[in-house]
Amino acid sequence: MTLLRASARTLLASQFVVKGYQGLKNPEPLVPGVDPLVERWVPVIKKYAPEQLADAIPEDSLTLVRVISGLELVGGLAMATGKGRRIGAVLLAVSLVPSTVAEYPFWTRTLPADKANDTALFLKNVSLLGGVVLAARDTQGRPGLAWRAQAGTAALARDTQRVGARVAKNTSQMTDAALTTGAGLVGVAVKQSRRTRKKAAKRLAKAQKRAAGPLGSAQEAAARQVKALQEVNEKTVDTLSKHAQRLAAQKVALQQAAEKRANNQRQAKRRSAKEAAAAQKLRDKEAAVAQRQATKNALVAQKQADRDAALAQKQADKDAAVAERQARRANAQAEKEATKASLVAERETLRADAIAQREAQKSAKRAEKKTQRIVARAQKKSDRSAAKEQARADKAAVKAQKRAVKASGSHALVDS
Fold it and tell me: How far apart, in whole angstroms, are the C-alpha atoms of residue 273 and residue 301?
C-alpha cells in the first residue's frame, strides 16, 4: 500500500515539478496570461487580506509567475519524495487556483475550438485540484485529527474518573491513618503523664524519708523537688495539650482535604459528563452538518450535471449546426472548385492546342529551313564537284596540249 501511495504521489507531482521548473527557468512566456489576473484580482485580494499577507502579495506579473512556479516546484518535490507531502499538497492546491484561472479563461474565448480546448484544460486542472486535496487529507491509514481529539476527550474522561476514585481511596486511607496515629500519640502522652506522676510521687516519698535529717535542708530540698516536679508536670501538660491541638487541627485539615478531594472528584465527574455530552453533541452536530452538506453537495452535483448536460446538448446542437453550415459551405466550395477546375482544364486544353499548333508551325519551319540547308549544302557540294571536274578537265586539256606540242616538235625533228 505504501508503494502504491508513493507511485501515485510521484505521478501526480510530475506535471507540477516540470511546469514549476520551466516557469522558474523561463517565466517571460507566461507573463501575458497572468497580466489580467494581476490587474483584476490582486487589488481585491490586497484589499480584504490581512496587512501582513497583503504586503507579501506581489503586484508584478513576472514575480507572481515565479512565486507560483516556486510553489509548484516545492510542492511537487515534497509530494514526490514524501517529505512534508500534505503541506506540499496544500501548496500545490494554492498554486493551482491562480494558474488555472490565468491560463485557461474559457469564458473569454469567442471561437468554439478555442473555448472547447480551454474548457477541457480547465476541467483537467480542476481534476488535479481534487487529487491534491485528497492527497492533503491522506493520513496513510492513521486516524485523523478529529478522531484523535474525540478519542483523547474520552480517554481524559476515563482517566479523570480513575484518578478521582484513586484520590478518594487514598484520602480515606490517609484520614484513617491520621486518626489512628493521633489516638496513638494521645495514648503515649497519657502514659508519659502517668509515668511522670509516679516518678514525682516516688521522689516525694524519698524526700519525706530524708526529712528525718536536718529539717531545714530536707524541707528546702523537698520544696525544690516539688517545684521541679510541678514545672515538669506543667511543661508536660502544656506539651500534651499543644500536641492534642495540633492533632485536632491535622484531623480537621485532613477532613477538609478529604471533602475538597471529594468535591474535586464530583466536579471532575460532572466535568467528564459535560465533556462527554458536549463531545456527543458535537459529533451529532458534525454528523448533521455532514448530512446536510452531503445532501447539498448531491443537489449541487445534480444541478451541475443537469447544467452540464444542457450545455453539452446545446453545444452538440451548435456543433451540428456549425458542421451543417460547414458542410454546405464545403459543398459550395467544392462546386466552385469543380467549375473552376473545368474552366482551368478548358483553358489548359486550348492553351495546349495553341501550343501544339505553334509547335507544329515551328516544326514545319524548322523542317523547311533544314530542307533548304540540305538543298543548299547539296548545291554547294555539286558546285564543288563540278568545279573539281572542270579543273581536272582543264588539267587534262593542258596535259593533252603539252603532249600535242611535244609530239609536233618530235615530228618536226624527224622530218628534218
Answer: 41
Task: Specify the pLDDT at position 349.
Answer: 86
Residue bearing cell 510541678? 230
**In whole numbers, what is the pLDDT of the chain averaged over residues?**
77
Q: What is the pLDDT of residue 186?
A: 47
Largest CA distance in the chain: 255
Single-letter residue type at 265 = Q
For the chain, the distance separating the N- and C-terminal CA atoms, rounded to the nearest angstrom, is 156
Angle, CA of 105, 134 and 38, to the nearest 5°: 30
Query: Environment class of residue 153 by beta-carbon count within 10 Å: exposed (0-12), middle (13-18) or buried (19+)?
Result: middle
Identify residue 26 by its one-letter amino acid code. N
pLDDT level of residue 1 (50, 70, 90 thresholds): very low
Q: Which long-range contacts (CB under 8 A, 24 or more apart) does 203-206 make?
A: 203/229, 204/229
If we measure between CA atoms, which residue out of 298, 22, 264 comes closest to residue 161? 264
| Rounded CA separation 121/311 (Å) | 17
Could you tell me if 113 and 156 are in contact, meaning their C-beta atoms sit under 8 angstroms apart? no
Residue 222 to residue 206: CA distance in whole angstroms: 9
Which value, in Å, is the radius of gyration of the alpha carbons in the chain?
65
- Amino acid residing at 343: L
> pTM of the entire structure?
0.36
Question: Above pLDDT 70, what percent of the chain?
Answer: 75
CA atoms of 75 and 69, how far apart (whole Å): 10
What are the CA-CA distances from residue 185 to residues 86, 181, 218, 242, 252 (Å)? 68, 6, 38, 12, 16
167: alpha, beta or left? (left if phi > 0; alpha if psi -120 to 50): alpha
Tens digits of residue pLDDT in 352-400: 888 888 888 888 888 888 888 888 888 888 888 888 889 988 888 888 8
